[in-house]
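Self-study notes.
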Amino acid sequence: MQQITITRTGGADRLKIVEKPNPHPGPGEILIKVKAAGLNFSDILARQGLYPDAPPLPCCVGYEVSGDVLSVGKGVDTQWLDKPVALLRFVEVVTLPYRT
């Protein structure tokens, strides 16, 4: 999969498209095929080094996505497979904790 990574703080030139292996859902997680993503103010602040909750660099941020559930981890009802969902990340596929 490809993800947009902040390599170091600064301008938009600090963003890089990076190849990563597809994640697999662990217990209590779902895997989502991302169809659409958005950019919000916290993403810009993270890139500038001004967002206190950003993960350490290099990192992939992104707080807005929608897509379809590709697979589910142990403990997640398989009824979620192929269902559309809206969540928060800027990658092609993502695992997230499942919450009812």
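Second protein, same conventions, sequence then structure:
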Amino acid sequence: MHVRDARHGLPAGPEAGPLAQTVALHRDPLGVLRRARERHGDVFTLRLLTARPIVVVADPAQVPALAAADPGRARAGSARRRIVPMASPRSIFGGDGRGHEAARGRVAPLFARDAVAAHRAAMAAIAVEHVERWPRGRPFRLLPRMRALVDEVFVRLLLGVGDERRAPAIAAAIGRMLWTPGNPPLSLPGEGDGLMGAGATALFDRRKAPLARLLAEEVDRRRGDPGAADVIGRMLRSDPAQPTEAIVDELLPLLMAAQEPPAAALTWLLDRLGRAPDLAERFLADEDADGARGGFRDAVVRETLRLRPPAVAVLRRLAEPADVAGRRLPAGVVTMLPTALVHRDPRAFADPDAFRPDRWAAGDVLDAAFFPFGGGARRCLGEHLANAYIDGLTPVILRRVRLEPLWPVPERMVLRGTILVPQRSTPVRAGRLGLPAPGRPREGGRPAGPGGRG
């Protein structure tokens, strides 16, 4: 029998133990959340290894208020640290209050729309180098390739590591730090989670050490002439006396957040376009002379992010008791706005499981229920960068290779930490010929309209 937890004053939820709930959520996040909502309603409680308890709020009408609750009535940083304990409280990702504001303010100008757009040509050049190294005619997993590409772009252009040896070494170290075996992997427990937490923390510390060493060397090398047009330079100039260890501690979560979400988004998008060559050609052609995306391309991106959002949720830890969807929740509770579940809610999106880019032009959406980049004061700093990746990297790939997904339908989402990734990392085969340049018609018939299930 599922009953209200009188001790904590929390809504009912699945009764399985924390380990079982954690494994189930990571293996099938959308399915687990849907079944829980069907049984318990829009507000229910999960108990996970990394957050016990966590209250899921699946009502689209609650998104604006909860997303905007930080910093006054809730905390995003401490909520994230419950799920990803290696997120430093000094960082943009794991900090709160003035600490978060200071960390964000140091680097925010580098992530503005015009600032990241200025890197587009350099992004394209790096993408060409990577795509030329991809195998032809034999299967490979697309997600790791997109991670490697995004890592190198970020290290070279945003961190400002220009050395031909150091930049690839740092990018490779990021990948090794975040690589986790298993399908799907579980979140790493943190302090206070017993022997499992201690062992997992020790494992992560060993993986982190090579990257931390390389970053420390780069920071120390730049102290004499930090520059100001990149992340490391701005950190050094904002507080020259800050110890190297503290700067590295702040950089590590930023690198983690900058890798997996955009790599996952690019993978989901390329998988979608690889399944519909006519859709891909129309997507590729819909840009102006400066490469800015047109309305159709924007709709395809939005619809892909709706059905396959990179982040599993917006997390907030209540700083004070709050009334949420008709329930009184106590202070200290971590609340979760489940992105994929709300994005597929029929109250917000008609025919919610269908891939229908036309819905965006028709206005057949509840805008407030679309939040792939979060919302409020904690809206993702990397939103413009993610869009620059999509606009700068996707056309390069489409024009150089024809990607053929090997799995017959879009893969199920699994959860890696807080990021939704393809279950099998998207096995593909790359043909040697990409799509025609814009303006060249495809031979043999009219383009088919985009459709299909999500």
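Instructor comment on the second fold: Residues 244-274 form the longest helix (31 residues).
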